[in-house]
C-alpha cells in the first residue's frame, strides 16, 4: 500500500547517538510531503482526465458504430431501391411491348378491314359504272330508234295542226 502524505508527516525516527539533524530531516520531510501531495494531485487529475477521455472515446466508438450501421443500411436500401427500380423498368418495358403488340395488331386489323371495305367499294363502283354505262347505252339506243323519230314527227305535226 502506498504512503500517504500524512504517513510521511507522522513518521517518527528513532534517535541515535549523534543522529541526523532533526530540523534538517523535518525540513526535508516537509519538502517530500509537498512533492508527494503534488504528485498525488497530478495522478488524480490524470486519472480523471483518462476516465473522461475513455468516456469520450467510448462515445465516439458508439458514434462510429452507429455511422457504420447507418452506412450499411443506406447501402442496403440503395441496393434494394436499385433492384426495385430495375424490376419496375422491366415491367414497364414488358407492358410497353404488350401495348405496342396490341397497337400493331389493332392497326393491322383496321388496315385489313379498310382494304376489304376498299375492295367492296371498288366492286360497287365497277357495278355502278357498268349499270350506268348500260343505262346510257339503252338511252342512246332508244334515241337511235325509229320510234323516237316518229314521236318527234308526230309532235311536230300536232303543233302545226294546232297552229293552223
Automatic annotation (TrEMBL):
Matching Pfam families: DivIVA
Domain of life from the UniProt record: Bacteria
Segment forming the signal sequence: none
Any one Gene Ontology BP term: cell division
Listed InterPro entries: DivIVA_domain (IPR019933), DivIVA_fam (IPR007793)
Any one annotated GO CC term: cytoplasm
Keywords for this protein: Cell cycle, Cell division, Coiled coil, Cytoplasm
Subcellular location(s) of the protein: Cytoplasm
Coiled coil: 29-56
Family the entry assigns: Belongs to the DivIVA family.
Protein name as annotated: DivIVA domain-containing protein
Naturally occurring in which organism (per UniProt): Alkalihalophilus sp. As8PL
Origin organism lineage: Bacteria, Bacillati, Bacillota, Bacilli, Bacillales
Amino acid at each position: 500500500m502506498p504512503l500517504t502524505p500524512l504517513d510521511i508527516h507522522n513518521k517518527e525516527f528513532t534517535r541515535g547517538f549523534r543522529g541526523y539533524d532533526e530540523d534538517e530531516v523535518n525540513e526535508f520531510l516537509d519538502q517530500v510531503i509537498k512533492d508527494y501531495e503534488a504528485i498525488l494531485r497530478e495522478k488524480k487529475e490524470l486519472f480523471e482526465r483518462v476516465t473522461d477521455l475513455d468516456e469520450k472515446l467510448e462515445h465516439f466508438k458508439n458514434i462510429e458504430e452507429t455511422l457504420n450501421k447507418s452506412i450499411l443500411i443506406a447501402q442496403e436500401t440503395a441496393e434494394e431501391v436499385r433492384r426495385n427500380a430495375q424490376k419496375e423498368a422491366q415491367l414497364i418495358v414488358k407492358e410497353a411491348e404488350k401495348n405496342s403488340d396490341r397497337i400493331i395488331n389493332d392497326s393491322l386489323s383496321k388496315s385489313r378491314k379498310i382494304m376489304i371495305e376498299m375492295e367492296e367499294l371498288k366492286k360497287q363502283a365497277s357495278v355502278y359504272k357498268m349499270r350506268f354505262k348500260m343505262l346510257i347505252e339503252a338511252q342512246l339506243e332508244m334515241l337511235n330508234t325509229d320510234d323516237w323519230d316518229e314521236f318527234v314527227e308526230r309532235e311536230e305535226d300536232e303543233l302545226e295542226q294546232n297552229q293552223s
